[in-house]
Specification:
With 230 residues, the protein is mainly alpha-helical. Helix content is 74%, strand content 0%. It has 13 helices and no strands.
Length: 230
């Protein structure tokens, strides 16, 4: 479906090049190539940045362009610029729960845990029927503090069977708790989606988290039974 949506948006951008929201959505589809490994083509973050900036040029008061720009800057590791774009995206539409959750998660992952968690909690309050990924920052905050039972209680809210990261989180926290059987089940579900995860885990975690948190997740996956090479 990602590939189909990308094709539709690219065709639409050619026929309606001054429609700002199309460029914002196209930017999001492009960074999904990088973050989620969907239908990858060369230079997804460069394309995401270009599309987000095009959106902002066309509609500088629409938060969607700034939201896409912020995420793209996060993955470019330009953290100061990411935080400024995130601030602007929230300022332009503080009632956009999806944007609040995304900015909160990435703000926490960038090291500003206090601000990121506050944003994530605001998103949860805005949308009581939220998708499971809204909980990622709260999960990882408990996990990094080695409050593993609390982290597991949060992880059980994910309900994201097609999302590799949710299975990685579950496997890691089950591993840390010494719960071998559910850890193995979570690993099987992870490897069904990403069979190469043992080889790419350290690099993939490094795209999102600081080194200490990434290694703590690796530790949990190893305890769960995943053989990750140094």
């Amino acid at each position: 479906e990602h590939a189909q949506v990308r094709d539709i948006l690219e065709r639409t951008a050619r026929s309606a090049p001054r429609h700002a929201e199309i460029w914002a959505m196209l930017s999001t589809i492009y960074w999904h190539e990088h973050a989620l490994a969907f239908n990858q083509r060369p230079d997804p973050i460069a394309r995401a940045l270009a599309a987000a900036r095009r959106s902002i040029d066309l509609a500088p008061t629409n938060n969607l362009g700034y939201s896409a720009l912020a995420v793209s800057l996060f993955f470019e590791k330009n953290i100061l610029a990411f935080r400024e774009a995130a601030r602007r995206a929230i300022e332009l539409n503080p009632m956009d729960g999806s944007n609040l959750a995304t900015m909160g998660i990435l703000m926490a992952y960038s090291g500003d845990w206090e601000h990121g968690l506050a944003l994530a909690e605001s998103a949860l309050a805005l949308n009581p029927h939220q998708p499971g990924w809204y909980w990622f920052a709260l999960f990882l905050n408990s996990y990094r503090k080695r409050e593993y039972q609390d982290a597991l209680n949060i992880a059980l809210k994910f309900n994201l069977p097609g999302h590799f990261q949710s299975h990685a989180f579950l496997a890691a926290v089950y591993g840390q708790l010494g719960l071998k059987e559910p850890a193995q089940k979570a690993l099987q579900e992870l490897l069904a989606i990403r069979p190469d995860f043992a080889e790419v885990a350290r690099a993939k975690f490094g795209e999102f988290y600081g080194a200490e948190v990434a290694e703590q997740l690796i530790e949990g996956l190893c305890k769960a039974g995943l053989e990750i090479t140094p």
